[in-house]
């Protein structure tokens, strides 16, 4: 009988069968939600024994998770290609936990200049106040360049590929070689590459996900995950999460489990739709260029093609320099089918002007014009293209 975790089975098959009782079990298809705080033990010895297994999936107290959390942990580890995964309340919490797990006062951290804005705020705020120094580096750094940036007290090299809003693809294996040679850990925000980039095959030590996005898939939960591939890294991140009081709602975990059942078909459909829309936009006279790693016109397309199995449906559009930031906002305002809002990965399409979302201190991204971040949902591409066409047609000139 086939094992649902067997890697020989297809991704969609594994997502349909993993984390539930099985096709031949008697009962409801979906496992129930397990909520609770206090865990009772038959005797004191049992409680002491459970405490010794605090790094395993045993019931000790509600904040350590229950069966619903454990099923989601296993599925995220499966998708990321790791051995263990930690579930936390938000994507930003998934950024915070490993950073604070590996860094202390006097340590140095390297973060790409293209990083997710709230991660930059964390580094410039709490981390700085706690005596942790951060250097922002050009996301297009090569191995030699990374070696030159690493100091004796550099403990973490953070990566995010592609970068938020500007979509630079990083050479993760090269960065990892330089970091590991100096004894530093490599952390990666892998939300754009969920499943399609296997982090531990490319030298990453800790992979971060905003499960709010594609994993949930319906824009109605807040969750994050931290995946690792070694027992040593699991002990570090699990200890930090426990000490920081990190916890995720079992109800959100259950909704995320439900979202993962359809993740393979949504990823495929939305990636394909995104490429259709991006190629159409690339031919519009109002557009200077596309920021989509899967397009041959992208500066790091070769790196994308080497390391990613497929793209996702999030990309950037740079308008011609004759247009202003107000014009980019007008395009978004005039769209009927694209919502204006943060996040992405849901079933709905979004368009967001990026002028106020880009902060750079190491190197100007050199976009050349005002930009809009586009997320393609599950609508018909013909309808989305028609909507974009009428909005672009309203631009002056």
UniProtKB/TrEMBL annotation:
It comes from the Bacteria. It catalyses: L,L-cystathionine + H2O = L-homocysteine + pyruvate + NH4(+). GO terms for molecular function: cysteine-S-conjugate beta-lyase activity. The keyword Lyase applies. It holds the Pfam family Cys_Met_Meta_PP. The keyword Lyase applies. Keywords: Lyase, Pyridoxal phosphate. Its cofactor is pyridoxal 5'-phosphate. Its EC number is 4.4.1.13. Belongs to the trans-sulfuration enzymes family. NCBIfam families: cysta_beta_ly_B. This is Cystathionine beta-lyase. It comes from Muricoccus vinaceus. The gene is metC.
């Amino acid at each position: 009988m086939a094992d649902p975790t067997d890697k020989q089975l297809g991704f969609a098959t594994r997502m349909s069968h993993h984390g539930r009782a099985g096709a031949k079990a008697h009962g409801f298809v979906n496992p129930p939600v397990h909520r609770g705080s206090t865990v009772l033990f038959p005797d004191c010895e049992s409680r002491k024994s459970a405490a010794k297994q605090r790094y395993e999936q045993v019931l000790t107290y509600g904040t350590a998770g229950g069966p619903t959390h454990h099923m989601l942990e296993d599925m995220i580890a499966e998708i990321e290609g790791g051995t263990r995964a930690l579930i936390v309340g938000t994507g930003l919490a998934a950024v915070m936990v490993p950073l604070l797990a590996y860094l202390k006062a006097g340590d140095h951290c390297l973060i790409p200049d293209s990083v997710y804005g709230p991660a930059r705020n964390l580094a410039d705020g709490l981390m700085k106040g706690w005596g942790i120094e951060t250097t922002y580096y050009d996301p297009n750094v090569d191995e030699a360049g990374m070696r030159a940036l690493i100091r004796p007290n550099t403990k973490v090299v953070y990566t995010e590929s592609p970068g938020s809003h500007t979509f630079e693809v990083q050479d993760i294996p090269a960065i990892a070689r330089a970091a590991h040679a100096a004894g530093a850990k490599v952390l990666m925000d892998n939300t754009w590459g969920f499943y399609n980039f296997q982090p531990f095959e490319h030298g990453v030590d800790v992979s971060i996900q905003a499960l709010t996005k594609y994993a949930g898939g319906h824009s109605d939960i807040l969750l994050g995950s931290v995946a690792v591939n070694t027992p040593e890294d699991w002990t570090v991140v699990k200890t930090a999460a426990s000490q920081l009081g990190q916890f995720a709602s079992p109800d959100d975990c259950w909704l995320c489990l439900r979202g993962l059942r359809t993740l393979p078909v949504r990823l495929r459909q939305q990636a394909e739709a995104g490429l259709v829309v991006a190629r159409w936009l690339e031919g519009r006279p109002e557009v200077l260029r596309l920021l989509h790693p899967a397009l041959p016109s992208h500066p790091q397309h070769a790196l994308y093609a080497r390391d990613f199995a497929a793209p996702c449906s999030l990309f950037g559009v740079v308008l011609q320099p004759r247009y202003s930031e107000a014009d980019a906002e007008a395009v978004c305002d005039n769209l009927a089918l694209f919502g204006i809002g943060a996040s992405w990965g849901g079933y709905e399409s979004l368009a967001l002007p990026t002028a106020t979302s880009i902060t750079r201190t190491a190197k100007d991204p050199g976009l050349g014009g005002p930009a809009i971040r586009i997320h393609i949902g599950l609508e018909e591409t013909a309808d989305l293209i028609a909507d974009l066409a009428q909005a672009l047609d309203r631009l002056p000139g």
